[in-house]
Amino acid sequence: MTTAYGPIDYSEGIDPERALKYALPRLCGDRAELIEGGVANVTPSWDHERARSFVRRQLSARVDELGCVEGSGNLDLPGSSNWYVPDIAVVPDALARGGAALLPEQTLVVVEVTSEATAETDRVLKRKRYAEYGAPLYLLVDRVEKTVTVYSGPGRLGYTGVDGPHSFGTPVRLPEPFGIELDTSGL
What we know:
This protein is α+β, with helices and mostly antiparallel strands and 187 residues long. The chain has a single domain (44-182), classed as Alpha-Beta Complex (tt1808, chain A). It is built from three helices and 14 strands. The longest helix has 20 residues, at 46-65. The protein is globular and about 55 Å long.
């Protein structure tokens, strides 16, 4: 059998992490995540989708110029009980082919848009894990607090650069390779 991780060799037993991450989207759907070992299957509200779309439209032209793709594909955090489906991730086009889960370090930016149910997870757990696994930029659109924060400089202990939180309505600079100013007034 072949998985996103490659062929499974049953002669050496089954790796529980690998088996769970293979089974998760097949059993729980495309928006299912593993967060610190717990399964979360979030169905976004229309308001959440509106905010995500607002950010995505602003990134779109620059994403095309960079030869990238933006979407909400699976991100694996190997060696942990985490498998995320970010609201938006920007990845090089060549990596977006083949259907396999990518690693946070392979992204150019990861965007999470909070809801009441996910706010603390997005603010704390995901921010920590994205930094630990090398996502170069983490854009947190906090609809609960009505703020936007850009995190950069990932490392094992978290992000070293923090720009924000900025209140909705304040233009927010997304650093290189984007080099664009995000309009947050429509969030």
